[in-house]
# Entry
Amino acid sequence: MKLKIFAVVFLFHHVAFSQNISIIKFETLQQRITSNPDTVYVVNFFASWCAPCIKEIPEFLKYADENKAQKVRVIFVSLDFKKSMSESLLPLIKKLNINQTVYLLDEPDANDWINKIDNAWSGVIPATLILHNSSDYRRFTTESLTYSLLKKFAK
# Structure
């Protein structure tokens, strides 16, 4: 009986956190960040093994919380491998209490999609793309961002 209860609790816990992560292809990501022209999209590319990425995540969370009444969407795009999702990515999301959209990008060949984000991007992370489609505003940076820089760049 105890084993059954443990299994149910474990399964519920795993499902609850895995619902926060969608595994998507780049084409789907592109569609999602261009779907609402009146929304500002702040798209952060990161990985659970990237220390500068992890350091800046709280800055994005603060920015998202302070702009939740606005048409602003902060989206985290993990470049982790799918096989490390349970061991690395899910615990990180729980530890940092990431309550924004998190996608795991399932694209084995970065050369197929990184130039579609920015022609000069080498693939280094952290990297952030800020889009406001209705005004054609687009800013891409690979510098680590603070809350004040996010406010400045996302206008």
